[in-house]
Hints:
- Residues 72-303 form the RCC1-like domain.
- Keywords: Repeat.
- RCC repeats lie at residues 13-67, 91-143, 142-200, 201-254, 255-307.
- This is RCC1-like domain-containing protein.
- It is built from one helix and 23 strands.
- The strands form seven sheets. A four-stranded antiparallel β-sheet has the order 6-7-8-9, with no helix packed on it. A four-stranded antiparallel β-sheet has the order 10-11-12-13, with no helix packed on it.
- The longest helix is centred in the last third of the chain and has 6 residues, at 218-223.
- It is mainly β.
Amino acid sequence: MADGTSLKKASKSELFSWGANSYGQLCCGHKNDVSFPENVGASCHLKNSVVAAIDGGGGHTAIITGYYFTYEEVISTAAGLRHSLVALANGSVWSWGANKKGQLGIGKTGGNCSTPQQVLFSDGQQIIEVVAGAYHSAVLTSHVFCWGSNQHGQCGKPPDIHSTEHQIFIKPQLIGGLLTSVTVTQVHTGWSHLLAVTEDIKVFSWGRADYGQLGLGDDVVQLGFSSEPAEIVHVRGANQVLCGAEHNMALLDSGSVMTWGWNEHGICGSEDETRNVHQPSVVSKLHDYIASLIGCGGGQSFAVVKG
């Protein structure tokens, strides 16, 4: 989930990037912001390379070629705030970057890893995807496993709200509760909350809640978190579900778009831009349109529509 950065791979495996670039995260050979898509190519030493996967993080970009992972197919890649993940077809998960909160899942905290380290994960099932938040990570098989910061219950355990030390899990933890006996087909994450979509197209949320990002109403917002996955009944049967940093989007069968969570800058598209959206609400300004695709960044929302 990129924050201010966009990436696109063209049909001929050319890579373009645009947006904020103060850290050089666009890989264009400079640190100037880019308003129009710019071909990455040789400036990032990618000329003639096969790009297997790309993802944008908080201040960096993960571009996976065959340099490290020549021996196994890349299934999924994810870029968090300051760390990255890759899942391979052999069932292994690798991570690198910042590890202060245990987000690398390598059995310890502290230090930065500049080369991929193997995550201590061996579920024995086929991996579908990996995702990365600000200080946590997750892997999806038919179940969800999380590790890293549990400050807001991201790892499925009640956080100690009276402690000044954030609870950290240095190894993957199975997310239980209502997700124990169901098959999960998708997992998405913001900076500190997660969404899971089940086989029967129900959407569950857990983690940080103070901006309404869980879509579970005022009571959960006041509590500030939920470590137990709970169903968001308003978006049952959604075709597409996505997380921004602290907001979410859902595309319904009808072509309507729903949003909820953090609404600063009007990123939820609601009439009142001064209030966060605590439950999924239809974007009224798109009432006369049918959406076919949605997308969101850290503080932006997008929809492809037709009248």
